[in-house]
Amino acid sequence: MSSYLGSAASQAAMLALTGRPGDWCLRSDLSTRWELTGTDPTQLSGWTQTLYPASAVRVTATTSSSTPTPSATTDDMYVVTALAGTATFGAPAGSPIHGQKLIIRIKDNGTARTLAWNAIYRGVGVSLPTTTVVSKTLYVGAVYNLNDTKWDVISVAQEA
What we know:
The protein has about 160 residues and is mostly beta strands. The chain has 2 domains: about 5-50; about 60-160, Jelly Rolls (Sandwich). About 5% of the residues lie in helices and about 40% in strands. The protein has one helix at about 10-15, and strands at about 5-10, 25, 30-35, 45-50, 60, 75-85, 85-90, 100-110, 115, 120-125, 140-145, 150-160. The protein has a 6-stranded mixed β-sheet with strand order 5-6-8-11-12-10, with no helix packed on it.
């Protein structure tokens, strides 16, 4: 059975905790959850960052960009509110973790716009959208696959 080791305000505070594999803590400085997966809690390599579902959703919004680029470090949701031209979505900046989720929400400015995607995005059971529908919201849901170094797009939903 795992135990909650408490809140750690820094990496140093986390590495000072004592526990056994499966135990976990919250990093208040990063708003992340960390699980002890190794046998030595004093080594960072013994800890694995996991998603913390109780965290607030981190949202970045922009009106329009020809190269919209989410950040794996700061975005759970990336919103384009009034796309005014062709857009090629860039590879998310930062260091994503295995299983990390990213939702991209796109709406044009009243004119259908062409969409393209960096090769780091790949459709899994869905096709990546190539255009917007005039004034309709489009959602693209992705999960980071550390093994393949890809953002696997597993859902695409268009407003009716």
